[in-house]
C-alpha cells in the first residue's frame, strides 16, 4: 500500500518536474528504480529514410545505408528494417564504381553490399507512403516487407535524412512532410499501440524543427542541427566527385561501429557523439517525452534487437533435423555439457488459431 | 471623345501644366539619372560577386584523371595534322579526322551541307562537318553535350587554331575509357567558321523535318545520328598546345549569353588548373597602376556591351544559344614569348586538358538544363556581375523620358483653334498671347464656347503606315528575285536599296504635309512607339537598346514641334542632329570611327573612302546574317529605326500647311502670319 502510494507520488512529481525526479528516486529502493528504468520492449523495428534524390545528394544515401548497416550488424533482421531510398546511387550512370556506394573516401566499406534489402525505392519514397507506413494504414496488397508490423512492445528507431527546412523535410524534389504531419503520425502510432518506445533521429538542415510538435509519450528525439542551423557534410571523395557523408551521421557511425551487440554503451553517450566543435551545427535533443534516463538505457534497446541469441564457440545445430549426420565428432563433448534450450517467442499468436 | 482621351480633362490639372512647362528639364534629369545609374554599376557597391547556383555542377570536387599521356597523344596528333595540312591548303582533312575518331572508338559520321549564296547571280558552296559520338555507357541516349572545335584551313585569313582538333581528339580518347558518362558526348569538327556550325545545328534540330528547302539559303541536310537533347556545348579554339592564357567568349547571337553558372564553372575550373583565364582576357602584362578599379570595371562593361550590341556571335558557341543550349568558347592563346625553357613542352597542354575534363565532368553532373543562375547579366569583372534587375533601371530611366514627354505633350495638345495657333507659334500681340494662360489658371468659362478642334487621327495613322511600309520594303526588296538577278555584289545592292528608301523617307515630309494638329499628334505617337521599341529591344538585347537610347534620347527630348522664334539656331541644330542620326549615317560614323582607330596612319580621305566601302559591306553582312543565322540587327534597323527616323525627321522639319488656310476661318484680324514658318 505504501509502495503504491509512493509510486503514484513519484509519477505525479515526475510529470510535474522532470528534474526533481533524480532526487525523488534516490530515496526509492534501488531494485525498484532499476526495474522502472529497464526496458519493457519485446522486439525492435527500424524505419530508415533517405528522402532526397539526385546524384549530388549521394551523401544522404550513404548516410541511410550506413545506419542500415549498423542496425543490421547489431541484430535487427531485414524483415524488421524498413529501408526507404529515394534514388539509386549505386546504379547512377555517373557513378564510376557501378553497384557500389561508399560512406568514406577511403572506400573501406561498400555500404551497398550484396545483402541490402531496399523496401521503398525511387519514386515510391513519398510522404504518403511514409505516413501510411508509420500509421499502419498501408494500401491493400502491400507487401509484408513494406509494412511496419510493430506492436505495443516494439522499440522503433526512425532515422530521416535529406534536405530539411524550418518545420519540414523535403521528399524527392516535389513534396514535403511537415513537422505537424510527422507529430500526428507518431501520435497515431501511439494510439494504435504501434510502439513501446520510439527513438527519432534526423540528419537534415534545421533538423530540430521536425521534432518540435511531438506530444506522444516515450519518444526520444535527436536532431543534427537546431532551427536556423545548417547540417554540413563531412568530406568529399575526389575520385567520385561527390560529398560522401554528413557530419552528424559520420560521428554517430564512428560511435556505432564500436558498439557490439552486448555492449554497455548507453543512448546518453550516443546523444553526445557530435559536439559542436566537430559537427559545426548544434545537435538538438528532446528528452521531455521520454520517461527513462538516457544514460541508463543501453543503445542496443534501439539499435540492437531482442532475439534469442547466444554467442557460442561450439557448433550448434539449429535447423537440421538429423543432427547425427553432421555432428559426430563432438557428440561426446556435447553430451557432457549441459544442454541448453532455445525458446523462440512467436511473434504472432498463430498457434491459437490452429 | 472618351473620358481618358479628352484633353480638356487633363489640362485642368495644375501639376501637369506645371510639369509640361518644364518637360525638358524633367526629361533631361531622367536621362542624366539613367546614365549616372549605369556608371554607378561599375562601382563595387552596385554589383555582386559571382557564385555557383546550380548544386548539380559541383565543380572541382573531382580530381582530374587525365594524365601526361593524353598530352603526348595531342602532340603526336598535332604533328600528324600539320603534315596533313600541307596537302590540304584550303580544305579540311576530313579523312584524317574521321579516321582518328574511328580509331578512338567513336561513332563517327559526316554531315554535308550546302549554302546557296543569293547575291551576284547566285552561287553554291558545299561544306562537310565531322562528328563522333561517344555513347553514355550505362544510360539511354537522351541527353548530350557537345565539344566542338572549328577547323580553319591553312589558307584562312584568321588566326591558326589547328591545335584545337588534336586537343579535342586527345580528350575524346581519354573520355572513351571512362564509364561515368551520363550523357552522350559529341565531338564535332566544323569548317567554314560559323557557317558549318549553323548548318550542323540546323541539321541536328530540324534535319529530319520535311521543310521546303527550295527557298532556304542554307540547306543543312540531315544527320545520320543524334544524341538526344543537347544540354550544353563547349567550343574549343586553341592556337597552340603551349598556351599563355584562355579567353572565355560568351557573347552569342543577338546578344544572348550562356547561363552565368556556366561561365562561373569555367572560371572555377580554370583557376584550379592554374590557367590565366577570364572574359576578354589579355596577355599577362606588367601591372599598370594607372587604372582604378572603377575605370577597369567600366571599360569591361562597355566592351562587353559593345560586342553584344551588334548581335554577331564572337565564336561558334553563339549559335547554340538560339536552341537554348548554353555554350561558350574557350579560346586558348599561344604563348607569345618563347618560354619553352621554363615549361616542359611534353606536358604543356596538361592543364588545359585537365580543365576540359573538369568542365566535362561538371556538365555530366547536370540533371537538367542550366536554369538556376542568370541568363541576363553584364560582367563587370571576372568574378563580379550585374544582374538584369540592376541594369534595367538605367534603360528604364532613359525610356521613361519618352513616355513622360508623350504624356505631357498629349495633355497639352491643342483643344481649340486658338490654342492651335498658339501651339503653331503664331504670335499675337503680347496681351493676347498671355490671355489663354490666364484662362487656364482662373476662368475656364471664357474658352469653353470656343470651337472644339478635332485632331487628325486618320492622316497621322496613314503617315505612320507609310513610314513603316518603307521599313518593310528595306527588309524585303534586297532579297527579291528581281533584284538578286541584277549582276551586282551584295554590298552595293543592299546599300543602294537602303539609300534609295532612306531618300524617300527624307523627301516624305517635304511632299506630305500633315493637317493642323497632325504634327503634335504624330509627336505623341512617335514618342510612344519609340519608347516601346527601345524597351523591347533592351529586354532582348540590352546592349543594343541601351546604346541606342543613350544616343538618341537627348535628340528626342529636344525635339519640339512648336515654333519658337527665338530658338531658330537650336531648331536648325536639331535638324542637323536628326540628319546625322539617320541609321545609314550612324552606321557610317561607327565604321569610320573603327577604321580610324584601326588604321590611324592613313590620310583622312582614304579612311573615309575605306569606311564607306566597309559600311556598305557591313549592311550586306547584316542582311546575310539575318537571312542565314537569324540575327535581327538588320531587321531592327530597317523595321524600327528607319521608320522612327523618318518620323523624327518630319518632326524636326515641322513643315506646316500655310497658315492662311485656317486663318481665314479663324477670323482674327490682329494676327500677322510669321514668315519664319517657311524657312526650313
UniProtKB/TrEMBL annotation, chain A:
Listed Pfam families: Peptidase_C13 (PF01650)
Pathway: Glycolipid biosynthesis; glycosylphosphatidylinositol-anchor biosynthesis
Keyword check for Signal: yes
Location of the active site: 163, 205 (nucleophile)
Signal peptide coordinates: 1-18
GO MF term list: GPI-anchor transamidase activity
Alphabetic keyword roster: GPI-anchor biosynthesis, Signal
PROSITE patterns with a match to the protein in the record: PROKAR_LIPOPROTEIN
Family indicated by similarity: Belongs to the peptidase C13 family.
Protein name: GPI-anchor transamidase
Annotated source species: Drosophila suzukii
Lineage of source species: Eukaryota, Metazoa, Ecdysozoa, Arthropoda, Hexapoda
Gene: PIG-K
From TrEMBL, chain B:
One Gene Ontology term, aspect cellular component: GPI-anchor transamidase complex
InterPro entries noted in UniProt: Gaa1
Biological processes per GO annotation: attachment of GPI anchor to protein
Keywords of this entry: Membrane, Transmembrane, Transmembrane helix
Top-rank taxon, per record: Eukaryota
Coiled coil: none
Transmembrane segments: 460-479, 491-512, 524-557, 578-599, 632-653
Protein name according to UniProt: Glycosylphosphatidylinositol anchor attachment 1 protein
Amino acid at each position: 500500500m505504501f509502495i503504491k502510494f509512493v509510486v503514484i507520488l513519484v509519477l505525479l512529481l515526475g510529470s510535474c518536474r522532470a528534474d526533481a525526479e533524480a532526487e525523488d528516486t534516490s530515496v526509492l529502493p534501488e531494485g525498484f528504480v532499476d526495474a522502472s528504468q529497464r526496458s519493457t520492449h519485446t522486439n525492435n523495428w527500424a524505419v530508415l529514410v533517405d528522402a532526397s534524390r539526385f546524384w549530388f545528394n549521394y551523401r544522404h544515401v550513404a548516410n541511410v545505408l550506413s545506419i542500415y548497416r549498423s542496425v543490421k550488424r547489431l541484430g535487427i533482421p531485414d524483415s524488421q528494417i524498413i529501408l526507404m531510398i529515394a534514388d539509386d546511387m549505386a546504379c547512377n550512370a555517373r557513378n564510376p564504381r557501378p553497384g557500389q556506394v561508399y560512406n568514406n573516401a577511403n572506400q573501406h566499406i561498400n555500404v551497398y553490399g550484396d545483402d541490402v534489402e531496399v523496401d521503398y525505392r525511387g519514386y515510391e519514397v513519398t510522404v504518403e507512403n511514409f505516413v501510411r507506413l508509420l500509421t499502419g494504414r498501408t494500401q491493400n496488397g502491400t507487401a509484408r516487407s513494406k509494412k511496419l508490423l510493430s506492436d505495443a512492445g516494439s522499440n522503433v528507431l526512425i532515422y530521416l535524412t535529406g534536405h530539411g527546412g524550418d518545420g519540414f523535410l523535403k521528399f524527392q524534389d516535389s513534396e514535403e512532410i511537415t513537422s505537424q504531419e510527422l507529430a500526428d503520425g507518431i501520435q497515431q502510432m501511439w494510439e494504435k499501440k504501434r510502439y513501446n518506445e520510439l527513438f527519432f533521429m534526423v540528419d537534415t538542415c534545421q533538423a530540430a524543427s521536425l521534432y518540435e510538435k511531438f506530444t506522444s509519450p516515450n519518444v526520444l528525439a535527436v536532431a543534427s542541427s537546431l532551427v536556423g542551423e545548417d547540417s554540413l557534410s563531412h568530406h568529399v571523395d575526389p575520385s567520385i566527385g561527390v560529398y560522401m557523408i554528413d557530419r552528424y551521421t559520420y560521428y554517430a557511425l564512428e560511435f556505432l561501429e564500436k558498439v557490439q551487440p552486448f555492449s554497455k554503451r548507453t543512448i546518453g553517450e550516443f546523444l553526445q557523439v557530435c559536439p559542436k566543435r566537430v559537427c559545426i551545427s548544434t545537435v538538438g535533443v528532446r528528452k521531455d517525452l521520454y520517461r527513462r534516463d538516457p544514460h541508463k538505457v543501453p543503445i542496443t534497446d534501439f539499435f540492437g534487437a531482442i532475439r534469442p541469441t547466444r554467442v557460442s564457440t561450439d557448433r550448434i545445430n539449429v535447423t537440421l533435423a538429423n543432427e547425427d549426420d553432421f555432428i559426430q565428432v563432438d557428440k561426446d563433448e556435447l553430451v557432457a555439457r549441459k544442454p541448453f534450450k532455445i525458446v523462440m517467442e512467436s511473434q504472432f499468436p498463430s498457434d491459437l488459431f490452429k | 471623345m472618351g473620358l481618358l482621351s479628352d484633353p480638356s480633362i487633363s489640362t485642368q490639372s495644375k501639376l501637369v501644366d506645371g510639369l509640361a512647362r518644364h518637360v525638358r528639364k524633367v526629361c533631361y534629369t531622367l536621362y542624366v539619372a539613367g546614365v549616372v545609374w549605369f556608371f554607378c554599376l561599375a562601382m563595387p557597391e552596385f554589383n555582386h560577386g559571382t557564385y555557383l547556383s546550380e548544386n548539380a555542377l559541383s565543380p572541382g570536387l573531382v580530381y582530374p584523371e587525365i594524365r601526361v599521356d593524353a598530352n603526348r597523344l595531342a602532340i603526336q596528333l598535332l604533328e600528324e595534322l600539320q603534315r596533313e595540312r600541307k596537302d590540304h591548303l584550303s580544305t579540311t582533312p576530313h579523312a584524317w579526322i574521321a579516321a582518328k575518331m574511328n580509331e578512338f572508338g567513336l561513332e563517327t559520321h559526316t554531315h554535308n551541307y550546302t549554302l546557296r549564296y543569293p547575291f551576284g547571280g547566285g552561287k553554291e558552296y558545299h561544306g562537310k562537318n565531322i562528328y563522333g559520338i561517344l555513347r553514355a555507357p550505362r544510360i539511354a541516349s537522351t541527353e548530350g553535350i557537345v565539344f566542338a572545335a572549328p577547323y580553319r584551313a591553312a589558307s584562312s585569313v584568321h588566326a591558326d587554331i589547328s591545335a584545337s582538333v588534336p586537343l579535342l581528339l586527345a580528350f575524346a580518347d581519354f573520355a572513351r575509357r571512362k564509364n561515368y558518362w551520363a550523357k552522350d558526348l559529341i565531338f564535332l569538327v566544323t569548317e567554314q567558321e560559323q557557317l558549318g556550325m549553323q548548318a550542323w545545328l540546323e541539321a541536328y534540330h530540324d534535319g529530319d523535318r520535311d521543310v521546303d528547302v527550295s527557298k532556304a539559303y542554307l540547306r543543312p541536310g540531315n544527320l545520320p545520328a543524334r544524341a538526344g537533347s543537347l544540354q550544353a556545348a563547349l567550343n574549343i579554339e586553341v592556337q597552340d598546345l603551349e598556351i599563355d592564357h584562355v579567353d572565355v567568349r560568351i557573347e552569342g547571337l543577338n546578344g544572348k549569353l550562356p547561363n552565368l553558372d556556366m561561365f562561373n564553372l569555367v572560371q572555377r575550373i580554370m583557376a584550379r588548373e592554374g590557367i590565366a583565364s577570364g572574359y576578354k582576357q589579355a596577355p599577362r602584362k606588367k601591372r599598370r597602376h594607372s587604372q582604378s578599379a572603377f575605370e577597369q570595371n567600366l571599360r569591361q562593361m562597355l566592351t562587353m556591351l559593345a560586342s553584344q550590341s551588334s548581335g554577331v556571335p564572337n565564336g561558334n558557341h553563339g549559335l547554340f544559344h538560339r536552341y537554348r543550349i548554353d555554350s561558350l568558347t574557350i579560346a586558348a592563346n599561344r604563348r607569345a614569348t618563347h618560354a619553352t625553357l621554363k615549361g616542359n613542352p611534353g606536358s604543356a597542354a596538361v592543364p588545359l586538358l585537365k580543365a576540359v575534363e573538369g568542365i566535362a565532368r561538371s556538365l555530366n553532373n547536370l540533371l537538367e538544363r542550366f536554369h538556376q543562375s542568370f541568363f541576363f547579366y553584364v560582367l563587370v569583372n571576372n568574378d563580379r556581375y550585374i544582374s538584369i534587375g540592376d541594369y534595367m533601371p538605367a534603360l528604364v530611366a532613359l525610356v521613361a523620358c519618352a513616355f513622360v514627354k508623350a504624356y505631357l505633350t498629349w495633355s497639352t495638345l491643342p483643344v481649340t483653334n486658338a490654342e492651335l495657333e498658339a501651339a503653331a507659334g503664331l504670335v499675337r500681340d503680347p496681351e493676347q498671347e498671355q490671355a489663354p494662360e490666364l484662362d487656364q489658371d482662373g476662368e475656364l468659362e471664357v474658352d469653353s464656347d470656343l470651337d472644339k478642334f478635332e485632331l487628325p487621327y486618320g492622316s497621322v495613322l496613314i503617315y505612320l503606315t507609310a513610314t513603316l511600309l518603307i521599313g518593310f520594303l528595306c527588309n524585303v526588296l534586297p532579297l527579291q528575285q528581281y533584284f538578286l538577278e541584277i549582276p551586282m555584289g551584295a554590298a552595293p545592292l543592299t546599300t543602294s536599296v537602303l539609300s534609295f528608301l532612306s531618300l524617300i523617307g527624307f523627301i516624305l515630309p517635304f511632299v506630305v504635309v500633315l493637317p493642323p494638329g497632325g504634327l503634335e499628334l504624330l509627336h505623341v505617337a512617335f514618342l510612344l512607339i519609340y519608347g516601346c521599341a527601345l524597351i523591347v529591344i533592351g529586354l532582348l538585347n540590352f546592349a543594343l537598346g541601351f546604346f541606342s537610347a543613350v544616343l538618341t534620347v537627348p535628340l528626342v527630348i529636344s525635339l519640339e514641334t512648336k515654333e519658337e522664334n527665338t530658338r531658330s539656331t537650336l531648331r536648325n541644330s536639331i535638324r542637323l542632329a536628326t540628319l546625322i542620326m539617320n541609321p545609314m549615317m550612324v552606321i557610317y560614323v561607327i565604321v569610320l570611327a573603327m577604321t580610324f582607330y584601326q588604321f590611324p596612319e592613313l590620310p583622312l580621305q582614304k579612311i573615309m573612302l575605306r569606311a564607306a566601302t566597309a559600311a556598305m559591306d557591313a549592311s550586306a553582312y547584316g542582311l546575310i546574317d539575318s537571312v542565314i543565322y537569324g540575327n535581327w540587327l538588320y531587321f531592327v534597323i530597317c523595321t524600327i529605326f528607319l521608320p522612327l527616323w523618318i518620323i523624327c525627321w518630319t518632326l524636326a522639319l515641322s513643315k506646316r500647311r500655310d497658315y492662311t488656310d485656317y486663318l481665314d476661318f479663324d477670323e482674327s484680324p490682329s494676327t500677322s502670319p510669321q514668315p519664319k514658318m517657311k524657312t526650313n
